[in-house]
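User: Could you check the structure of this?
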Amino acid sequence: MGKSLVIAEKPSVATSLARVLGKLSKKGDYFENEQYVITSAIGHLVELCLPNETDKKNRKWDFSNLPIIPSSFGLKPIKKTVGRFQLICKLLHRQDVVEVINACDAGREGELVFRYLMRLAKNHKPTRRLWLQSMTGEAIRAGFQNLRREKDVFPLGEAAICRSEGDWLVGINGTRAMTVFNSGSGRFRLTPVGRVQTPTLSILVEREEKIHSFTPRAYFEILANFSCKEEEYWGRWFDPLFQRGGDEDDRAERLWDRKKAEAIQAKCQGGQGIAVEEKKESSQSAPLLYDLTSLQKEANIRHSLSARRTLQIVQTLYERHKALTYPRTDSRYLPEDYLPVVRSALESIKEGKLHVYAKKALAQDWVKPIKRVFDNAKVTDHHAIIPTGVTPRNLDEMETRVYDMIRRRLVAAFYPAAQFQLTTRTTTVEGESFQSEGKTPIDLGWLSVYGKQLPSQEVLAPIHAGTLLATKMEVVEHQTKPPARYSEATLLSAMEGAGKLLEEEALREAMHQRGLGTPATRAQIIEGLVTDGYVTRQGRRLIATAKGIMLMTLLRDIGIQDLCFPELTGEWEYKLKRIEADQFDRDAFMGEIRRFAEKIVEKTRRFFELSSKKNCQDLEARCPKCHATSFSESFHTYECKSCGLLFWKNVAGRQFTPEEIRGLLETGSIGPLEGFRSKNGNSFVAKIKLDNAFKVSFDFGDSYSEMERKQAILSSTSIVGSCPVCHEGKVYDTGFSYCCNRMLAKECTLNIGKVILQKEIPQDQMIKVLQTGKTDLISQFVSRKGRRFSAYLILKNGKVKFEFLERQRDA
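Assistant: Sure, the predicted structure tokens are below.
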């Protein structure tokens, strides 16, 4: 009797299959008995060849070689796992192996792993499909008793190959076309684009454009302190008749006229009030279990970990320590037969307070098959990330923190909802309304697992019979703020929810589960944008660079902005799902992708030709090197016709006008000019000059030391005020902090971070600190325990401290 070769996608799955299917002996990287040979593919073992690997003419990057539309796509083994590929080929071609069982992950990418592997290995033996969404012994045995026929999953494989080849066509042709365009002046300038990477960059660029075009507006809030006997509480003025209109900055508590705010202040100061309260109970259920994206977002917020670093940690916990289930998942649910697995995982928690909480959940019989945790319909290729019950050893600090996050989330999932009483108090003084809110815990429920306690500031002081007086009225001036820059957490959310931006319902539904990228690829996409120079990190923030903004501008100018929008991915997902359901033809889909790739190349080529012919002309100016009087213009440069001296039109994200170039060539210096953009995304002002080698360089003036020049080039050079500490220096916005220039020479200590407790301190508030020693009331600070609060910032002895409405305490 022949044997079945079972190919899993991951070694851990192969091990689980071998354990359930009977006595199989381990022979290196595979298991074997009289019925089965079981091995794994370690993820993708095969990838598509690059153009130059199948056709030598494609080695040259030139419009004449574009578009590249192969009639068939070549495959090659991935270099780092070629040994495993060779092993599977050897097992596949054994005489005693009569069939192959595809045990790769139950989804599109799992099918792609297997299909590419079988194609490159030239398999002609019959195949069947093992379809598992649960790894319990019972589920595995049932899966082997109900193996699917190859033709049953053939459409899924076709959709997988369409996705892979489609990304290749768009990425290869788009990247080469844009690179050829940007390299037209002789210097090779790699310009990567892609179906997922470019829309992700577009999200960051659009945010950056909104920030830089934002004009702040002053508004006013009125804060009142009310006193009744010995009790005090604060209230905020609001308009009870407010209705939202077209102004997105308008709020019920905002006044746009200082005089009106001061009139209300004068009218109500010292007045008697009447308070009315509304109380209601609310509940807050425990959060869902983690998928990879939600874990990456929370690890970024709580521990400042990048998406890539979080992925590295959970991969280590999964592969080396065997402490977690498979982490590259987009599901936050478990299979319905996993209740015993969960009980076992909870019972394995033996140390610390978490042991007490886990033991209580089990003892109270809270660990039940509830739909918020167990739901087969919401399990995709993989289930939510949970601990396996294996206790890892020798973890570093961040590994310990992430592992604790996952264990704690599993315990909390079975705890009762937190119960609160919400109090909304409206105090009326002289016909004006002030609102106060309080939150009193009834039962902390799952929050107790996280050691949460309600901050005292959220508990509203009770009011008693007696005179209610408005003892203090304060008009607080604020400025509207531009939208915040993305962190990795908020960008992951934007990528995950990109489908929500689509107007067409079918496209929204198609992207509902995937968004831009997959949980397994989003970290790689973000890192790719950073590596390619399109995005830079500044603390927790991700900022589109001048290079990234220029790419988006160029794509719009060329007319291929389809690459910038999530609609492209939405359309792909919609049609790929139809292919999976055998409702749409693979050839028709690939025909559309080929035409799209051809359109990218053709529009880029046409724009290149137009920009080099129609829009460019000679510049009459004297060359500082050879003294010739004519420069030829290309899309990117001006070049001396005589000696070839080259000047780039764009420096630090700023496009020079012909008049500015002419002035620079003839006088050697121009400016100061606005609109330059530093590497960390901040705008700055500088003079431009030619050095002795006729290279363009920045000139920030004689008042700067060499160290300051370096600091200024790398960041914003805007001066925000005089230093109140040393009384001699100037305070600069460096992009990361507000820093006295004398600190660089260790002659001053003033260096205040731009972000304090997750709140960016804007320049206007820093100016107030420098001038008066105190900011306006600033909201949305986040304490180390995750509590949001408002406070003033005050400057004492060169250090920033918090000043609260109720009391003062150090930061």
